[in-house]
Write a structure and sequence with these properties.
The protein is of the alpha+beta class. Helix content is 26%, strand content 25%. The protein has 2 domains: 52 residues; 200 residues, Jelly Rolls. It binds pyridine-2,4-dicarboxylic acid and zinc ion.
Length: 294
Amino acid sequence: MTVPSPFTDELRQWAVNEIAAGSGPDQVLRELIARGIPEELAVDELTRLLESRLSQLKQQRAPAAETDPSSDDSPNTVPQPLTADSPNTIRVDGREISVLLQLKHPRVIVFGNLLGQDECDKLVALARPRITASSVIDMQSGGNKQDEGRTSSGMAFRRGETKLIERIERRIAALLQWPYENGEALQILRYAVGQEYKPHYDYVDPTQPGALPFLARGGQRVASLVMYLNTPPRGGATNFPDVGLEVAAVKGNAVFFSYDKADPSTGTLHGGMPVMAGEKWVATKWLRVSRTDP
Ligand code: PD2
Ligand code: ZN
């Protein structure tokens, strides 16, 4: 049985508000200890909150390097995946991953053979008995809510939950050159015929009250990797309406896209188009600015 942490969501929210309001770290730390949080835990949690606040400020101040199509050497505010060494393949974790498509704006890369066929089947088999109706983040409360734009069902694995999951997550970290600990828990989605995920952005709107508890645990999302676990017979492409791009869902392939700020100018509006026949399974990995919950 896990013991609940004394550092509750309410306390985290209070600390986030204090930091945003300009209270000094020593002052917030003293107050946390006075509220009964052991010093070591208080220092750890406060460090994470301050790191996340600093990266938020850094993001807000960063020049629009990634969105400038003439700029090739954008700073590392988003993952910079490995580049293909032989014409179009990258060797990671003993696999030949191919680069099938690259777009500069929005920053999109389609990878082939990121997952083995057997790995896809195993992920589906592990997830199938655990899926429930999908939800989205409630931007008012910071909790989860059902949304008509997302009609799929899904579940999330804990980071490193099984050897297979950890291996895939470490492969992703190596390919994208982004820390393993900054990756959210792997989310699995299943779409039946007619189900879809209407166009949306994967970053959270930092001006909404519900964003604070989310941002306090690892900062903003900066990139997404949607991995296809099967090939739907018809439909189910991932689309980027701003640029008219549709990426076909092909088992083992994945679409990566990054966004250096929480802003539509990144062009990363994207959706899961309706499935027309059969079903569609995907695994999504979202990458955060800082370490996040496993
Ligand atoms: O299933 C997809 O193609 C899809 C599309 C848009 C998944 C996500 N977004 C996501 O998981 O964020
Ligand atoms: Zn999405």
